[in-house]
Amino acid sequence: MTKLSKQDKIEIYHLWHDYQIDPAELSQRYRVGRSNIGYLLALIDRHGLAVLDQPFTAYTSNFKKQALRRLIVNHESLYHIALDLGLKSRGIHQSIPRKGNGLIVCFLSLAP
């Protein structure tokens, strides 16, 4: 797997959007997992190319609490929450299920 530059991400989006190149082909061409390509395309499609310009973000406790509430109380999928919030990396939301019950206990202790 390779790390994509901003320019790579822009090219991938344009190849998919303008030339209808399949995500599987883009995955092979750029040597990135197909699910990562799919998430990148969905993210840019929803938030625009400007999402690539966002700097590193440190998320506040309130932000995390609201995201967890959507996950646990509203039963939304991690994928859709991350996409809706504009999280640039799938790695951010993939770590949540691995934390298991500790995360739920943490959430419950934060709940009003």
Q: What is the count of β-strands?
A: 0
Structural class: mainly alpha
What is the number of helices? 7
Q: Uncertain regions: pLDDT < 50 for 5+ in a row? A: 97-101, 107-112
* End-to-end C-alpha gap: 42 Å
Q: Could you estimate the helical fraction of the residues in percent?
A: 55-70%
Largest sheet descriptor: none
Q: Evaluate the radius of gyration.
A: 16 Å
Mean pLDDT reading:
82
* Fraction of residues in β-strands: under 5%
* Multimer state: single chain
Order of helices and strands: HHHHHHH
Global shape: elongated
Give me a quick take on this structure.
The chain has 112 residues and is mostly helical.
Structure in words:
The protein is mainly α and 112 residues long. Helix content is 68%, strand content 0%. It contains 7 helices and no strands. Helix 1 crosses helix 3 and helix 2 packs across helix 3. The relative contact order is 0.11. The C terminus is likely disordered.
Helix and strand layout, with pairings?
Blueprint: H1 6-19, H2 23-30, H3 34-47, H4 61-72, H5 78-85, H6 90-99, H7 101-110
Which key phrases capture this entry?
elongated; 68% helix; mainly alpha; disordered C terminus; 112 residues
